[in-house]
Structure formats: structure tokens, C-alpha cells
Amino acid sequence: MTSGGLTRTYQLHLPQDYQRKRDWPLIVAYHGRGNTGEGTELFSNLSTLPAIVAYPDGVIGEGDGDRQAWQGAPYSAPGVDDVAFTNDLLDTLSATLCVDERRVYATGKSNGAGFVGILGCVLADRFAAIAPVAGAFYPNGIDCHPSRPVPVIDFHGTGDATIPYQGDADRGLPAIPDWVSDWAARDRCRIRLHDRTIDPDVTVSRWVGCARGAEVTHVAVTDGGHTWPGADSYSGGGYTTQTIEAHEVLWRFVRRYTL
């Protein structure tokens, strides 16, 4: 497809029983820096879910070899408006497929997850919930004032050496617990429940009592690397937990929400 004067590409997965007799939920999954939509489909298992899944491809950053990236990171291609591309992609999919526009969700890994954080801020009218994984939440100059409280489920490994769990001041990366707490405050959540540990290596934090029925959940993988939880193939460096499957956990969360 064409967006912003550029040719843009995406992988598209339709469920095996897809029929035009009803509208289907849609998941848009954004790859990490240097990856592709095809690569993300391989390790994420998102295509096993009962939803249409689109895996868009970023644009190669300036002076960045052949590594594709998304808006908001310091290495992304200058002048490329991936928010506008996302709007165009959603319009294209809605025009050609049976998409339930009330049930559209965004997920992504690393740089893609950082961009998902931007989408939560500026496209809350199009995404019912967001689910970043190992997110690279660089400073991006975008004021985050979503038009509605956005349900968020976030995954991150405490041993992530690429995007440190406790942040990286030199790169402007926040501590992940602070980023999640900011969303809980943004969604006007009143209660933080006691953390729940899932043996042996997963701790779940939840904020409830949020405005308009939203919820914020954080899934921390003890010693987890820069990886997609539950992945059976390479998704990044470090330890990959098999205690949970990220695609199953995020689906149980996001499917509760509609616009």
C-alpha cells in the first residue's frame, strides 16, 4: 500500500475459519528494530489467535544499514509518519476485510512496543487496548493525553540487557515500573492490587478501579531477557521464559475491551 508518498508493506494473517459472515477482531503487531513483520509472526504465535493479524513493516532508518524501525526512536527514519501509516493501514483493512472496528488492538516488541506506547497516546479512538513487549520507550516529544482511558498490559524481563528494566538515563529510557505506573495514573486507577507471583519466574502487577473500566497490568519476567515470553524460536537476546505464552496472556487481557 502507499502512505505518505512511500510504498509500505505488511504481512496479513486471516484465521483458518475466517468468513465474511461476521466481523473479526484485529491485532496489529509491530516488529522490533531490524526485524520484519514476517519475523515477528514466526516467534510471537499471534497468528494462532481467533483474530485477523496484521504485521506491518517499518522504514529503514537513516544511516542504519538495513534495519527497519518505527517512529519515536532516535534511530528511526526522519520525517516518516508511522501514526499516519497506521491510520491508513486500519482504513485499508477495514475497507477490504470484515473487521470489527470496536475490537482493534496493538502489540509489538522492543522498538515496535515503544511505538505501541505512542499509539496508546494518540490513537486511543482506534485501539481498544495495547500490549507492549520488552518496550523501548524513548523520549519522543509527544504529549500523552489519550482521548479515553486505555487498557494496557505490559511485558518486560528484569534481566533485559538491551532495554534495561530499571531504565537507562543516558538514552532517556524510563524504568519500566515507572512507565507502567504513569499509565495507571493516566487511566486514573484507584487501586494497586498485591503483586502475584506465578512460579517460578513471573510476577504480575495490576491496577484496577480505573476510569471507564480500564485496567493496567504489568508482567515482569525474573531474569528475563530482551525476548517474547513463550517464544519457541529466537526473539532476542537472553532468557526466554516458558512459564507463560505472551500471546495467550495478552489476548485474555485485550479481548475484554471494546471501543
Automatic annotation (TrEMBL):
Record bears the keyword Signal: yes
Keywords on record: Carbohydrate metabolism, Hydrolase, Polysaccharide degradation, Secreted, Signal, Xylan degradation
Gene Ontology BP term (one): xylan catabolic process
Coiled coil: none
Gene3D superfamilies the record matches: alpha/beta hydrolase
Phylogenetic placement of the source organism: Bacteria, Bacillati, Actinomycetota, Actinomycetes, Pseudonocardiales
This protein's GO CC annotations: extracellular region
GO MF terms, alphabetically ordered: feruloyl esterase activity
UniProt keyword Secreted present: yes
Compartments, as annotated in UniProt: Secreted
Native organism: Actinophytocola oryzae
Signal sequence annotation: none
Protein's name according to its UniProt entry: Polyhydroxybutyrate depolymerase
PANTHER family on file: FERULOYL ESTERASE C-RELATED (PTHR38050:SF2), PTHR38050
